[in-house]
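#structure-requests
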Amino acid sequence: MEIYQRQQFDFLLMTAAERFSERVTQRNEGAANALEKLRADPQGEGIWLDEFVIALFEDFLLNNTAGACFILNALEKRSVPDFTGGKIEQVLQQLSVRAFADLLQQKLAEVLEQTAAYRS
């Protein structure tokens, strides 16, 4: 990742942490309550972590493929939570192989259908 991209990612992360902290602190009547709820259930009442991230990505125009790649590129050395595929860089490679293989399978089927039709 280029230095300017790292700076943008760090800014995004700090902005997100500040915004999220303010919201959950207010919703949960203090930082201690918010921290307790966050540790107990990040998706639970008054926290809703994934919903916040989805909204944040929309605000920063990251809710698209390029945005996903930007985020994943910044986090390439981290493991994907609740994903058995390993490190993000490995997952991206696995996903690209599977996606290309699926497309290639469709294209190959078209070619074979055309070949079979002309030979009949």
